[in-house]
Amino acid sequence: MERLQFYLTTETPCPYLPDRDSANIVPDPMVPVTAGIYDQLIQHGFRRSGEHVYRPHCPQCSACVPIRIPVQAFKPRRTDRRLLKASLDIQTHTLSASFHEEHFNLFQRYTAKRHPVGGMASMGKEEYSGFLSTSWGTTWFTEFRLEGKLLAVAVYDQVRNGLSAVYTFFDPDLEKRAPGRLAILWQIEEARRLDLPYLYLGYWIAESPKMAYKADF
């Protein structure tokens, strides 16, 4: 880490805030990322998308706030307690990171409904796998099933001092059951069970409606 160099990317239009440009700090691409390096980088606000590790460093903007939940101190809100009680009929099952056709089909339905504009909705199988997994990290896929039907999949990394939420996708027809929020609450409890201090939730942007849910945590 002490010898690792960092670079600033070129600016591109911000995907979250209109009329702003974004740029990232990235570690030297000639140095292979390892689990040990990422364990340290995530504590300094870095995240990953597939194999790509980055931290926002935008011109005249510092809206992206890296957040993590100290799981032992977290207290669920009344709405969270109601959600957990209403979700007692949902079963979970955790798998190591690998491709499953059922997961991919759900991902396609989710992105077509929630993110129809952009590259996510058109991802093929290889792009999907590359987006969620890495060759150097420990990644888990937890299924949420309702009467045997796949409701949601939470993808998260296990790092030295916590779990790191990578992505969650769910059945858009069952959005009223709040599967995205349920997945966060489940990951908080899983971090507690593993005696890990934090759940990393990525970046929060106060002005972005897409990230409004993170303010509750």
Number of helices: 5
Parts with pLDDT < 50 across at least 5 consecutive residues: none
Order of helices and strands: EEEEHEEEHEHHEEEHE
- Helical percentage: 10-25%
Strands across the major sheet, in which order? Answer: 7-12-11-10-9-8
- SS-derived structural category: alpha+beta
The percentage of residues in β strands lies in 25-35%
The radius of gyration over CA amounts to 17 Å
| Form type | globular
For the secondary structure, the number of strands is: 12
Tell me, rounded to a whole number, the average pLDDT. 94
End-to-end C-alpha gap:
30 Å
Biggest sheet details:
6 strands, mixed
Q: What's the SSE blueprint?
A:
Layout: E1 6-8, E2 12-13, E3 21-22, E4 24-27, H1 35-41, E5 47-49, E6 52-56, E7 65-70, H2 78-86, E8 90-96, H3 101-114, H4 125-132, E9 139-146, E10 149-159, E11 162-170, H5 179-193, E12 198-204
Parallel strand pairs: 11-12
Antiparallel strand pairs: 1-4, 2-3, 4-6, 5-6, 7-12, 8-9, 9-10, 10-11
